[in-house]
Amino acid sequence: MQISLLVFPISAQESNSSRVVPAEGYCSMYGICGQRSDGKVLNCANATKAVKPDTLFSSRVQSLCPTITGDVCCTVDQFDTLHQQVQQAVPFLVGCPACLRNFLNLLCEMSCSPNQSLFINVTSVKQINGTATVDGIDYYVTTNYGEELYNSCKDVKFGTLNTRAMDFLGGGAKTYKEWLAFLGRQAKPNEPGSPYLITYRSDSSDSSGVKPLNSTIYSCGDPSLGCSCGDCPSSSVCTGSLLPQLNTETSCSVKMGSLKAKCLDFSLVVVYLALLCAFLLWGLLYRTRGRTAFPLKTKPLGNSDDKSDSNKNGKSLHNSVQVSEAASSTVKPSHPSIVQTYMSIFFRKHGIFVARYPLLVLCVSLLIPVLLCIGLLRFKVETRPEKLWVSPGSRAADEKNYFDSHLAPFYRIEQLVLATSASGGSAAPSIVNDNNMKLLFQIQKKVDDLRANYSGSTVALADICLKPLSTDCATQSVLQYFQLDPKKYDDSGIDHAKFCFQHYTSEETCLSTFQSPIDPGTILGGFPGNNFTEASAFIITYPVNNMVETTGQENEKAVAWERAFISLVKEEILPMVLAQNLTLSFSSESSIQDELNRESTADAITIVISYIVMFAYISFTLGDRPSRWLSLFVSSKVLLGLSGVVLVMLSVLGSIGFFSAIGVKSTLIIMEVIPFLVLAVGVDNMCILVHAVKRQPDESNLEERISDALVEVGPSITLASFAEVLAFAVSAINPMPATRVFSMFAALAVFMDFLLQVTAFVALIVFDFRRAQDDRIDCVPCARIVSSPATDDGGDGQRLHLLARYMRDIHGPILSYRAVKFVVIAVFVGLAFASIALSTRLQPGLEQKIVLPRNSYLQDYFDDLAEYMKVGPPLYFVMKNFNYSSASVHTNQICSINQCNSNSLLNEIARQSLSPETSYIAKPAASWLDDFLIWMSPEAFGCCRKFVNGSYCPPDDQPPCCQLDQDSGTCSASGTCNNCTTCFLHSELDNGRPSTTQFKDKLPWFLDALPSSDCSKGGKGAYSTSLDLSGYESGIIQASAFRTYHTPLNKQTDYVNSMRAARDFSSKMSEDLQMEIFPYSVFYIFFEQYLGVWKTAIMNICVCLGTVFVVCFIVTSSLWASAIILIVLAMIVLDLMGVMAMLGIQLNAISVVNLVMSIGIAVEFCVHITHAFMIGNGDRETRARQALSTMGASVFSGITLTKLVGVIVLRFAKSEVFVVYYFQMYLALVLIGFLHGLIFLPVLLSLCGPPPKSAKPIEQSQPTSASTEQT
User: Which residue, among 1176, 1161, 1182, has the nearest Cα to 1227 in the 3D structure?
Assistant: First the structure.
């Protein structure tokens, strides 16, 4: 914290005339003739000849003002006053010697120049004790002099507060006129500034004989006065950064008239059109070759009334546009593979065993999940964000741990945002008015008075807040312009706040209670440009101390206070704000975790409802609709459906129990998603199993029906289940804890569900069919209904019969048209190509609002932050093992003052801040090293000082060098420090740099030095946590940080790109400087995943597709069939990514897992149709229709509809993350999978499907009547 330069009073003696005639060797002011009421001395208005000083005085003058030789126009007292007050400016400018020299020359010429009368004219005098004292002067300088003076200083930075020195010494001046006007203003009593008005003028036409000052100005790029590149970016040695800027070139594009398209999009269109033309040409050529044999449409299979029509239909199918198996009447299909043979034998034996011993199988199969449920006794839910979304071994996590352990954890933040509301389409009105300021004082009092209970003791904000100088809390509020004192506000009013908006760095009355300037950009929001008075929001921030151990006592105290703070805001402050027609949003450090905890139980009712709905659906879809209503009590499957739902619950609980037993915590995603997921997957297979049993001939006994059904669908169920399990297993390699744990739990749950389906559920099917055969009532099996011959309708019932007939008689025949096939192929391939283009527009990220309940108070808070916050997150560049010894070059490779390397770390940071749109760095970095070197410099004579005994001597405006008046707050000189001297002489330093010993001895002094007016470079508070001094005596500082800020980050892509830019920059600097440097910001650990999310997604999807391909090949023993399944799965994933882009769903760990998981789920839409196609008989068209007839209805009712029912329930979850990433993505997956499985895949199989896996010739095979009719 700094206060601005006191503009230096120049004294004079009584003037002999009211008008000084300009002449060389004459003064306009000489001597001190009085003082103001606040003690500031006043010069005499005395036109006198310049005086020759004695030798000692002459040397003193030249030590500060080397351009003044010979006679002078100042006395010793005047010079002492000048010397005393310039020390306030020196620490701001000493890093740039050219600027400092020019600035001192400006003041020296005004105070002591022997030709003072040539460019200074006393315009106003004031009588004090009968003596004329100066009350106003005109100071003439040339325009060129003023501009060059300003240019030499305009970029000099004040690193402590990441701002320009001009903000302090010039009130933020943008031109030399503004700067000189600021320096010349007459200060009010007890305020810093000149005791009289100084009007700087460049027009001397009205003043005869006046010669405006035009002395030499040193350029900041002058090599002899070496300013650093950070302070003088216009220097010739600083014209170009050694680091390349981020690539800002636009992506490749193609223009076609007024249209403009990306090169990728254009290429995809060209390739698609070429493929489409090739496919059309192939169809035309093949049609020409077999013109006489190709009908316009093949006749539907099984739609004729006699065998002759059927044979004709078969001939027609054989000669259609698709490639046939062979031109002859017989084909020798390939024999089943060893795996298929083994699986058929296994499932047949397994079916017979289960049918014979259903009770034994049921008891043994249920024993394992029941035992695993014991692990639920150790069940715990993880809600800490850093444990959910940060990989423990990630670079960001390691860097955060290093930063926290070596420096200090970033402080906790409690925040309020008050804003006005726009009305009628107009802009929101200004919030800066008297009523709102008084409301803030009322809120502040409530917060100060708040007491929280912790272990029987009370905790107040003052007990836990961040105190940079160990006295007052570092509260960031507009009230700090009044030092949080309502009495001061009553005295000065709202105008003082508006004044401080423009002069917060230069007015002592604007300083905070903790003696630091408050940037209005951090406490106001919604203002255009720098028009702070038009701000529409107040932002109040309470920084609170943070500790490394999250469970430590200090952090627990903070959490207790934070929860009391949130309760206070909700119950008392919010009504106050609303009553004043303002809006209020708020947050505490623990808010996110608390809201996640609240959400963990918010959807319990949703889960219960979902299971009830699924139970009702499965009971409905498994049961039959008999011809007689009385038989409904027998043919229904309510008890079987309920049993199936219970099995799903057991598999989920068993999975959670197993992982809980081994110490893996559950997550909110697991609790809310896995029950739906496993239920949807499990019901599919249940429906397929029951339908397969029903398709078997009624004349067969139950053992044969069960075994034949398992032989028919067991391999495809196994393939689909293992594909799903492997998809989740692949996702488990994702380093994100939340998604990794989710995948582990889901993989085990799906695997256990599969085992229970082929064991316990098959046993339950046996019991249920026995019950039905005995005409026992469903749910009350002990009761029977006396049946008649008409009771049993001998089939699935009218409902499934109609669905099966639709697939056989309508759906299949429509797909056999050549035109339809062409359209299907063109549309689906076109959608895949369009999805490739759309997928490139997927943005990485995960909006914070999405993971929270939709009714959370944090929703409004995040909206307000994005709208009103004008300052980005703090950014630290951390350097490891800084070698400060004299033999090392590290100091000059890091610092940014004079003599530092032009490509030093801090110079490059300053240069990067000049292009914030690509670097995302808003300001030069605050550098403890720069400030320490300046603080040690003999030129900063008010800073590093020592008593005669060698102990530290503080600046003159700090005790014990002055005596503090408790009433007025002023500190008057005590004389205690009169004998203090600077720590070092120039001769004691090595080219301006301290030796190893000097560095080691004085660094603790610097870190304990309080900043003040006489020395603004003290390190206490500003740099207390910027260094790790453990073991620094060896010459190595283990860790040190240099703080700057990111630009305001409003979108997820901004956070990702800013992190990438910072890492690229630090990597390049580490390489160039041969140092270990890394960037750190509090949000990095949550956004690191997005830097490589595309690579992770592509790798996981490819691995999963490859794994599923291998499993398909092992089960089917057909590369042909496996390749077709792979192609369809790839198209489903591409289409899903395209839908994500259209819906604005971002790419993150959750969506990557969903994409991988979609491959496993999509297998169900493909594998059953493909398996039925391969075991069928006939040519491709015949087998495609057979597959649709036997499995199409099951895929639609048993897979598509069951998944839809399970997914729709997620729409009603209270958390947006489930609605977006599970409802929307799963719904899209089900619809895309349905369309590909029942439309695109049959067409593709009819065109280029694999040969059948059968031992019978085609001529002997006929469509299975039972399969066709009963499905």
Answer: 1161
Strands 197-201 and 131-140: parallel
Tell me the C-alpha distance between 1031 and 1016, whole Å. 28
Cα gap 34→36, rounded to integer Å: 7
Q: Could you tell me which residues come within 8 angstroms of residue 802 by beta carbon, excluding any fewer than 6 positions away?
A: none
Confirm whether 901 is domain-assigned: yes
User: Is the residue at 518 inside a domain?
Assistant: yes
Taking the C-alpha atoms of residue 56 and residue 216, their distance in angstroms, rounded to an integer, is: 26
Phi-psi region of 901 (alpha: psi -120 to 50; beta: other; left: phi over 0): beta
Read off the DSSP letter of residue 584.
E
**Which pair of tokens denotes residue 584?**
């209020």
- What residue type is assigned to position 548 of the chain? V
pLDDT for 1215 equals 77
Taking residue 245's Cβ as centre, other Cβ atoms within 10 Å add up to 13
* CA separation for the pair 773, 792 (Å, rounded): 10
Count of Cβ atoms closer than 10 Å to residue 524 Cβ: 24
Phi, psi of 34 (to 5 degrees): 175, -175
Sign of the CA dihedral 60, 63, 64, 69? Answer: positive
**Is residue 155 within 8 Å of 215, Cβ to Cβ?**
no
If you write DSSP's letter for every residue of 248-279 in order, what string do you get? -PPPPEEEETTEEEEHHHHHHHHHHHHHHHHH
Return the structure tokens found at 191: 């305020």
Name the phi and psi angles at 1077, rounded to 5.
Answer: -130, 135
- The angle subtended at Cα 1016 by Cα 1014 and Cα 1022, nearest 5°, is 150
Determine the pLDDT at residue 617.
Answer: 78
* Segments of 19-84 assigned E as strands: 32-35, 41-43
**Is 585 part of any domain?**
yes
Are 453 and 499 in the same domain? Answer: yes
Token pair recorded at residue 876: 């630290």
**Nearest 5°: CA angle at 849, between 383 and 923?**
100
In this prediction, residue 1230 carries a pLDDT of 93
Question: Domain limits at 648?
Answer: 338-379+600-781+793-840+1092-1270
* Nearest CA-CA partner of 403 in 897, 1262, 1025: 1025
Report d(CA 689, CA 691) in Å as an integer.
6
Among 466, 506, 473, 516, CA closest to 1018: 516
Same domain, yes or no: 1015 and 1100: no
Question: Residue 47 corresponds to which tokens in the numbers above?
Answer: 């036109």
Q: How far is CA 750 from CA 99, 612, 753, 1160, in A?
A: 72, 20, 5, 11
What is the C-alpha to C-alpha distance for residues 746 and 1133, in angstroms, rounded to an integer? 20
Same domain? 1103 vs 1189: yes
Question: How many Cα atoms sit within 13 Å of 227 on the Cβ side?
Answer: 30
* Domain count of the fold of the chain: 5
CA of residue 573 relative to chain centroid, distance: 30
Low-confidence ranges of the chain (pLDDT < 70): 1-20, 204-208, 239-251, 257-258, 287, 289-336, 550-552, 599-604, 607, 624-631, 786-801, 966-970, 1254-1271
d(CA 905, CA 1074): 11
Distances (CA, A) of 911 to 160, 580, 916, 1129, 1158: 17, 46, 10, 50, 47
3-state SS assignment for residue 882 = strand
Q: What is the pLDDT of residue 193?
A: 80
Looking at the structure, do residues 1169 and 1229 belong to the same domain, yes or no? Answer: yes
- The residue from 1091, 1118, 1144 where one domain ends is 1091
Confirm if 339 and 714 have CB atoms less than 8 A apart. Answer: no
Instruction: Scan for tokens 């790109």, then name that residue.
Output: 1057
CA distance 627 to 632: 9
Tell me what pLDDT residue 206 has: 59
pLDDT, residue 319, reads: 39
Q: What are phi and psi of 158, to 5 degrees?
A: -115, 95
Phi, psi of 652 (to 5 degrees): -65, -50
Q: Report yes or no: 1207 and 610 within 8 Å, Cβ to Cβ.
A: no
